[in-house]
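Example: Isomerase.
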Amino acid sequence: MPQITVDHSNSIQFDQEGFARDLHEAVVAIAGAKPEACKTLFRPSELTAFGYEDPLDFGHAVVHVTIGLLAGRSDETKVVLTEAVLELLRKHIEDEGDGFVLHASAEVRDLDPSYRKFER
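Written out as structure tokens, the predicted fold is:
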């Protein structure tokens, strides 16, 4: 815990290392996670479709961050963390000017009580 996934359009110029480092610091400061417990998986997608537009026009790009935490954080803490994530996305995703419309979102959710893990 926390389990962090970043789904994003492949067309985004993205400082993934800097984002992950800053995100881990935010999760520790805001949600009380341990630094060594923070894990982030980036999942780029080559194709993203929007409405009726031709996906090959690449007029839109998306990034969505999901943070799974053990239960117990207040709704207020989750909101503060999602707002911090959006600020970090603004910082670490290059502005392409008129290249495309960026749709950025974030969600913090409780991990299911069945969550288990192991390390080797």
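The chain has a mean pLDDT of 91.
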